[in-house]
Write a structure and sequence with these properties.
The protein contains five helices and eleven strands, in the order E-E-E-E-E-E-E-E-H-H-E-H-E-H-E-H. By secondary structure, it is α/β, with parallel strands linked by helices. The protein binds zinc ion. Zinc ion binds at residues 67, 69, 214.
Length: 223
């Protein structure tokens, strides 16, 4: 008998290996948070504290949401039929200036993480403010997250040479937390100057950080 933590029995598995194999009627053993074995149902004698009957289920790797603003879950549906420029300048930015707080960001992020997990998303690549609260909410929910501190030109007050240092400090702080990573997030080409974008590229290289931005979100005035 082989001991593992979780055993899924039956079901079909989308392996995403080099051959993109789909294994039908297999069992899957998990130990220490990692897949230990996948084998034809009942062909090995595994014993687990938790056993899940996955018959008639399709088991896939977790989905990745490659672009989120998790706290904005609480703004869902608000003026969402307007052109981007009008939506941002007349509704979202004024609303954020009035309402965003650390509690708001934590609560809305917890809501967003829970909602994503319920739909199979296990990693979100987020862009917003108060990355500590978003990280903590994601940890509480048990979801992986890449957080970032959005840089928007008209709000940016720091020195260009210091871009990246806050994210690096955060990265060091969460170095031992497997669920959390962080990156640099210049918001968009229409909200960041060339100087800010160049400083972000240099900082990303200097601190070995990923970059996350709206590359082709929309063009102001075109809707
Ligand atoms: Zn976005």
């Amino acid at each position: 008998m082989i001991i593992c933590d979780v055993l899924l029995t039956g079901g079909s598995y989308v392996t995403m290996d080099a051959g993109f194999r789909i294994l039908e009627d297999h069992d899957l053993a998990v130990k220490d948070g990692k897949i230990l074995d996948i084998f034809p149902t009942g062909s090995k004698d595994y014993h687990a504290a938790e056993e899940i009957d996955a018959t008639n289920c399709l088991i896939t790797p977790g989905f990745i949401n490659a672009h989120t603003h998790m706290p904005m879950t609480y703004f869902r549906g608000l003026a969402d039929d307007l052109p981007l420029e009008k939506w941002l300048q007349e509704y979202i930015w004024p609303l954020e200036a009035r309402m965003i707080s650390t509690d708001f960001v934590y609560d809305a992020s917890l809501h967003a993480a829970t909602e994503m997990l319920m739909h199979g998303i296990t990693l979100a690549n987020d862009m917003y403010f108060h990355m500590g609260q978003i990280a903590e909410a994601s940890i509480k929910a048990g979801m992986r997250v890449i957080v970032s501190e959005a840089i928007i030109g008209h709000n940016f007050k720091g020195a260009l040479t210091e871009i990246g240092s806050k994210v690096q400090t955060f990265k060091d702080q969460y170095a031992n937390q497997a669920l959390v990573d962080c990156c640099l997030a210049p918001h968009a080409i229409y909200t960041c100057s060339r100087e800010i974008l160049e400083a972000c590229v240099k900082a990303a290289s200097r601190h070995d950080l990923l970059l996350h931005m709206h590359l082709s979100e929309n063009t102001p005035g075109t809707g």
